[in-house]
Amino acid sequence: AAAHPEWSHGVAVAAAERFSLVAEGARAGLGTTAALRALPLGPALVELAAELAHAAAPTLVPRVPPGLVLPLPAPALPTPVPGPAGGRGVVYFPSCLTRIVGSQPGEDILPPARAMDEVLRWAGLSVRLPEGIDSLCCGMAFASKGYPDAARAAARKTAEALWRASSGGRLPVVTDASPCAGTLADLVAAALKESGREVRMLDFPSFWAREVLPGLGDAPRRKGTAILHPTCTLIKSGGVADLLAVARAHAERVEVPLFAECCGFAGDRGFLVPELTASATAVEAAEVRRILEREPEAGCYSTCRTCEIGMSRAVGRPFRSLLHLVHEAVARA
Q1: Taking the complete model, does pTM exceed 0.85, yes or no?
Q2: Are 166 and 129 contacting, i.e. CB atoms less than 8 angstroms apart?
């Protein structure tokens, strides 16, 4: 933070306060890159343009060689369908990753936001989205880059939106990315606490394990094995038990690789320095491939889109959100 010039902090605060423009710009960049790469000379043009941009902003724009697979832009969020009158409600906070980063080319993956909406409604919950969700951010994108003022500005804006959406803290908030849940419980909770307010904010594994599974009885299961990659935030927050509880409830067998460690994506580093992720995932990926040789129908799951992209690159098989495991199970119920 001290190394950043003063003017850059002001730019970061402006970006935090206008996050919908940032998100739309990122989606447009992913869409434009995919469209250009489909042209005959597109990959070379994209590589040249990215190289020039990377030279000007090396910590912001990645190199994009032809062999580097980039995700497509995320589709629009589904419109929540009201649940039964008098039923339980929940506020769904789609992470910025879910709103910006879609599937990788060739992957046939249900958008996480749609999967979340459908499994919550399957559980009999009425789903709300915070007002102005496109402009909201938990603050991690700025805090992790050394812009604390921008992180606090984003957190305060999100705190007010979640307070309203949760009916003054009456409804719990669930998000689809464990790192986002960690920052919500940190920065956003701190912003609410300044005025004596509190909202329960959980990632999907914790919410499902604590709020839904106890009332399910015999939970529907997906056939075969679920291979899990616990994210760093999930481990630090003590959420592995909830992750395992959800996976064991909805899969016949569960495997956590012995060498499941940090995937090295570290927010956006996996885009900027893909070699970092390749090195960090090498041992775990080899173990996952051995499991897949024994059980080729196994599914691979995690709780953060960038972690899933990093592991997908390393293993050569799609890693999806834990949401998709639950969705696959309940869709067969």
Answers
A1: yes
A2: no
Residues in the chain: 333
Q: How many other C-beta atoms lie within 10 A of the C-beta of residue 56?
A: 8
Q: How far apart are CA 32 and CA 44, in angstroms?
A: 14
- Gyration radius of the chain over CA positions: 20
Residue 321's SS3 state is strand
Query: Does an H or E element contain 119, and which?
Result: helix 112-122
Q: Are 279 and 313 in contact (CB under 8 A)?
A: no
* Order of strands across the sheet that contains 319-321: 251-255, 222-228, 299-302, 319-321
Residue 71 tokens, joined? 């995700």
Host H or E run for residue 27: helix 19-37
- The pLDDT tens digits of the residues spanning 62-111 come to 888 888 888 999 999 987 666 555 568 999 999 999 999 999 888 888 99
> Which tokens hold the place of 192?
């609410």
185 phi and psi angles, rounded to 5 deg: -75, -10
Q: Could you tell me the sign of the dihedral formed by the alpha carbons of 270, 321, 106, 93, in that order? A: negative
Distance CA 149, CA 91 (A): 26
Contacts of 73 (CB under 8 A, 6+ apart): 26, 27, 28, 30, 31, 34, 100, 101, 102
Answer yes or no: are the C-beta atoms of 311 and 287 closer than 8 Å: no
Given a contact cutoff of 8 angstroms between Cβ atoms, the answer to whether 172 and 139 are in contact is no
